[in-house]
Each structure stands twice: as structure tokens, then as C-alpha cells.
Design brief:
This protein has a single domain, classed as 3-Layer(aba) Sandwich (Rossmann fold). It is about 25% helix and about 30% strand. It is built from 6 helices and 14 strands. Strand 13 and strand 14 form a beta hairpin. The two termini are about 15 Å apart. It is an alpha/beta fold and about 210 residues long. Strands 2-1-3-4-14-13-12-9 form an 8-stranded mixed β-sheet, with helices on both faces. Strands 6-5-7-11 form a 4-stranded mixed β-sheet, covered by helices on one side.
Length: about 210
């Protein structure tokens, strides 16, 4: 099986590569490859799009690599599993409103907006561990329970237009999107590679997932 993590200058991918490779080894699924080559991305069985920083910067870097945006779209349209992580998840939305108005993939209808906690003592970015509230059952969340912990670092969140696309939330002075899913795509605002047992379970489930 071919598992590809997309490299588009979005930050250090070492921890993600290490975690996905660890679970792939346990499942006997072969090597996890980090690549920015559109031809390699097109051949992926499972595709992961990470993202660190601002939506605008990630979107610009992704578009700067000739053919990469289109190769990712081809993968998703083919029905093969796709996971977006952090800003990688945010780019699944219709648009991002961080530092302007920027188009996303438009797979999950909604906008990426600044978090505005109703408790003004809560700091932005939302950083650290938080309890997951599960709103919809999904194979990639098998074995993950209500109130299991996940690790977050973000100032913006994807506000879904359709409730059916919302998979999990957290409470941070209000409801914050933690995960979304539709058909063969799933996204987590939290970092599974930094979320210890919860994250490793999710990664294992994703690598085994056949939508």
C-alpha cells in the first residue's frame, strides 16, 4: 500500500512521518513516503495533507508547486482515503478568512474563522490538550472515546455549513471544530502525531480505512 504525506514547505513533517510509519509498520502496510511530486501523490492509496501556520501561507505554498493542487483533487475524486491535519484540514473548507479571503478545496462547505471564546480569559491560540466530544460515529474514530485527549495548536477553526460534516468538537469558551468528515475524506484540527495513544489509534484506523 502506498501512503504519502504531502510536502509543500508547510513545516517540519518529521513527527508526522514517524507516527504514520510506526503504525504502518505495525499493520504491515509498508513505507510512508513524504513527497511534493504530483505524480507520486496521484499514485497514493492513502494521502495525508498536513499544515502548520496561516491558511494564506499554506494555500500559497501548495499552489506554488506545479500540478500538486490538482493531483490532490484527483486523489479525492477517485474515492481513495484522504486526511487533512490542522491547516491541512482547514484547506478542505470553502474558504479561509485568515489575512484575507482565500479559496480552499471546497470539499467541506464552510469558512475558516478566528476563534472567539466567550470567556475573555482564554488565550488565542488555543494551545494544548483538550477533551474530544464525539458528534458522529466514524470508522477512523473506532476505539476513541468521549473525552479522550487530543493536542491542539490553532487560532482559527473550520465552521461547517452542514452539521452532518462535523465529526468531533472541543469546548474552548464555546464549541470548536475538532474533526470533520465526508465520504472518503477526514480532517482533524488537532495533531494526531502529537496526541499520544488517541492519535496513534486514529492514524492506525485511517491507514486501515477503506471508504
Amino acid at each position: 500500500m502506498s501512503t504519502i504525506i504531502v510536502d509543500y514547505n508547510s513545516g517540519n513533517l518529521r513527527s508526522a512521518e514517524k507516527s504514520f510509519q510506526r503504525m504502518s509498520d505495525e499493520l504491515g502496510l509498508g513505507q510512508v513516503i513524504v513527497s511534493s511530486d504530483p505524480n507520486i501523490v496521484r499514485k497514493a492509496d492513502h494521502l495525508i495533507l498536513p499544515g502548520v501556520g496561516a491558511f494564506a501561507d499554506c494555500r500559497r505554498e501548495l499552489g506554488a508547486i506545479d500540478g500538486l493542487f490538482g493531483a490532490i483533487e484527483e486523489h479525492v475524486k477517485s474515492g481513495k482515503p484522504f486526511m487533512g491535519i490542522c491547516v491541512g484540514m482547514q484547506m478542505m473548507a470553502t474558504r479561509g478568512l485568515e489575512h484575507g479571503d482565500h479559496d480552499g478545496f471546497d470539499w467541506i462547505k464552510g469558512d475558516v474563522k478566528l476563534i472567539s471564546p466567550n470567556n475573555k480569559k482564554l488565550k488565542i491560540p488555543h494551545m494544548g490538550w483538550n477533551n474530544l466530544n464525539l458528534t458522529t460515529e466514524h470508522p477512523v474514530f473506532n476505539g476513541i472515546k468521549e473525552n479522550d485527549h487530543a493536542y491542539f495548536v490553532h487560532s482559527y477553526q473550520l465552521k461547517t455549513a452542514n452539521k452532518a460534516d462535523l465529526l468531533a468538537t472541543v469546548d474552548y469558551g464555546g464549541i470548536i471544530t475538532a474533526a470533520v468528515a465526508r465520504e472518503n475524506i477526514i480532517g482533524t484540527q488537532f495533531h494526531p502525531e502529537k496526541s499520544q495513544s488517541t492519535g496513534l489509534r486514529l492514524i492506525s484506523n485511517f491507514l486501515s480505512w477503506k471508504p
